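This part of the workshop introduces the protein records we will be handling. An example says more than a description, so a record of this kind follows:
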Amino acid sequence: MKSASVMTKAQVEVREVFKGKKTFDDDDLEKLDYLKLVIKETLRLHPLTPLLVPRECREETKIDGYTIPVKSKVLVNVWAIGRDSESWKDPESFIPERFENSLVDFGGTHFQFLPFGAGRRTCPGRLFGLALVTLPLAHLLYNFDWTLPNGMEPKDLDMNEANGMTARRDKDLYLIATPYT
């Protein structure tokens, strides 16, 4: 909703892929390349869990001149990694195209993007979670046009997140859905 051009591009893609269909299957969802970029960018800026589950160092490690002793508990700040200016150009901006032609994916092998963690302790529900986001979002984009209420402008949207174990909006989002025919 903050980026009208992204919304339009995602809706055009979904409506072209699903044109004339009442139901969608996995093959249809695989064709939604731009929507996948939008989801990646959303998870980069707003990871579901800002801090990964604590890890324990098995051996003394040095990182950027700091010594991490054996048995230290380490927290990985995924929220900060997603906004790191050394890893991301213009990190505070919502630019789904940054993932276009990029090898960076959800697998956790690229440590600048860890919305589901990495390694042996990566989220076991990653594929299920992505399906639970992609399919409903595709349906919402396909079936409705979306506007902000009461003359509200995209710049007025408050994207601040509440404190907690998981990331959620601090204030509820209210939108007007108009059926698309």
User: Anything to note?
Assistant: The first helix runs from residue 4 to 17. Residues 4-179 form a domain with the Cytochrome p450 fold (CATH 1.10.630.10). The two ends are 21 Å apart (CA to CA). The mean pLDDT is 91.
